[in-house]
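Sat 14:20. Reprocessing the chain from the morning session after the first attempt stalled halfway. Input below, unchanged.
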Amino acid sequence: MTGTKVKDIYVNPDERRMVVEKMKKEGILKNFTSLCKRKNGEQFYMERTSSLVTDEKNKTILIEGIFRDITERKMLEEELQESEGHHRQLLNLLKEGVYQSEPAEDGVFTWINQAGAEILGYSSIGDVIGVPVKDIYVNPNDRKELMKNLKKEGIRKDCISYCKKKNGERFISEMTCALLRDESGKAVRVEGIFRTRTEK
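Finished this time. Tokens:
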């Protein structure tokens, strides 16, 4: 490979220029992914970490780095994203609200289905993303109490709370939610389903 132009391994040769420009600014590029090609033209995804080596006068001498083929992992990620997309399309057909949020007491909504957005008085899903979950409660301490119980029990079923829509209109919410953790036991998100309940 010695003497081969580095830009020739990129499917898009302009990426080489962008990589070099970024390294000149930052000095190092970590876990950067590009679509590259082998000698026979076969395409694959390359992940690499590269850095600029300079002399005493800060003049660039060379670029050195380490790279690997992550094609299989990239394909799995794309399949999972496609699967998640279909999954969320199905969730949008439900009449109940389905949501995901950050696991902190003051955490925000990271995803919600269309029914959930409408229950909370929003016209679109995007309007709810980033809204603090505690803001939907008439009494914000209800969120604090919920997170306290979730950390102990992992799941809460059929919780009844007084909530409010974007315009301030109040309603009774019946919710079931769970706290999800990663392999190390760290809380990563809250997932739940809720609906309005008629006051009796």
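The longest strand covers residues 43-54.
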